[in-house]
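Re: the request from the purification team.
They wanted to know what the chain is likely to look like in 3D before they choose a buffer screen. I agreed to run a prediction and write the result into the notebook, where they can find it.
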Amino acid sequence: MTSPNPLLADTDLPDFAAIKAAHVVPAIEEAIEQHRAAIAQITEEQADDFGSVILAAERADFLLSRTWSPVGHLAGVADTPELREAHASAQALMTSYLMEAGQNRAHHDAVARVAARPDFAGLPPAQKRAVDLALRAFRLAGVALEGEARQRFLDIGVALSDLSTRFGNAVLDATEAWSEHVTDEAALAGVPESDKAILAAYAQEKGLPGWLITLRQPSVLAILLHADDRALRERVYRAHNTRASDQSDDRSHDNSDRIEQIMALRHEAAQILGFNDSAAHSLETKMAADADEALAFLDDLARRARPVGEKELEEARAFAAEHFGLTELYPWDLSYVAEAMRRTLHGVDQEALKAYFPLPRVLAGTQKLIERLFDVRLVERSGVSTWHPDVLFYDVQDASGEVVAGVYLDLFARAGKRGGAWMDVCRARFRDADAFHRPIAYLTTNFAPPAGDRPSLVTHNDVVTLFHEFGHVLHHLLTEVDLPSVGGISGVEWDAVELPSQFMENFAWEKDTLIGLSGHVDTGEPLPEPLFDRLLAARQFQAGLAILRQIEFATFDLTLHRDYHPAQGARVIETLERVRAAVAVVRPPEWNRFAHAFSHIFAGGYAAGYYSYLWAELLSADAFEIFSHADLPGGGASAFRREILAAGASRPAADNFRAFAGRAPEVDALLRSRGLAA
């Protein structure tokens, strides 16, 4: 007797421990067939009412997503050769089918009939928005295309999906491929004991004595921030910034050709749909009207930030010459010198700060903050099936104690796990007749793991990251929209989706919150107020250099997609150099290949959209100032929950902001928060 496939089980949570690579393709094949049959039934009935067309499609989409979500998630956090192969096969099936479904004219016509009904204007806002976004999705999927163009667009979609996956896999493989084994502790002079314990654990993973420097995030930061050995810093910087490129020592993971293919196919797909370029295609679903508006926004910030960044760089050079005898400052010196400046000039020692942030205390404080702001409790639940023993699961309870949502936390860096931090959807909120499906999220970071019998100690930057990702999580979990396509983060304009995450970051700089979640790992004493005051005073330390780096990435991304020409190719290095000449004050070496590991735009959802981080920061800075200084109906946090988090994409993001703030967003708060105000 064949055992049931856990990916097809009708359960509130996936049984991750039971999922094997062999389950993946059969489950996806069956889920696709079920979805195809459901859509066929919708179109055959020739109905024009919301329930028979839209709600029925939402139901079919929910079931397909329920099967696919765990597969995509596991590919990012539990990579194995078997799973990678199964995921690639299943993703090809999914991409091909979703492209086909996006061009289903009978389904499009059914949705159009709903929109054409005389009583359409009387539908609730969320329902009307779901219809409008569905019609836009059909248009952008090429539903109106004919003949060869139609087939070519489908083929491009499948090819792009495969290339993006291969790009991300190459970055992961390149990250794991490089290491430097250290047996003489003196080579690690300057590296804190807590970081050396992590490097020792990496060595133990490989059965080696001593310490192992890798390209995982905790290791890279430990060396670039703290290692006194300048040559070691250079080797780690070079290995990290040439990953998956033609400049790497191991060129088997080189992403150069993949970038060329991705850019060519994106441009071709955009032109098939009638757009001038792939930037215009991307901006069709964002708040910014077009690439020129987004670039003008970035140019204005760069104009304000560059003089500040130039002054900060000169200060760093002077400090490096005085304290380290460095006559020239290279990119692998910048973080090391900045950390020393922070200690010397501001009295802020990030390593000493870490002792006040044991992760269990930080998590407990985060739970208290969320309860205080939004009147919901995160309660850890044991016995939940997970993909790794370190994974935690929390139920989210409302004020009455009812469980309304849930979240998985996977917090530590390890082999087989993609770098960075992110949130993703496991289950959408969906009310379907008598059935109510609670929203479930994944929250993933790459914090330093516990070392020996000591808990994980996180930096203040890690606290900011945790709050950021919880902002995304809360956007998903606290939605009050019952339709998955417009609830939570789904359907939200990409340049507004970072609003809740960046809003939450501000609480990492709030005295009561930060001191409340702190507790020294040895004594339990909270963060001393004078140390918090010094930390706050240093908040804008090198803020000009930091925002210029973001502007550089965002401008490169938009320019690369807007200015692509088939006869000239992607011109990645040329474009990056041109952008840096206009924006940057720190110029990396010519062998730097940052773009070859820029997964956000080549393997994520940020193509021609990386500017969204700064665009949304404008929204979040303005919203937080209003929250902090104004009396809003029902209280600031209640208004933010009601008008931003709960509303999801049931109305445009600009309308959500206006409902919260009573006006359109203004740039002044962003300039103040970044130290750029005149």
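For the purification team: The chain has a mean pLDDT of 96.
Please add any questions underneath this entry.
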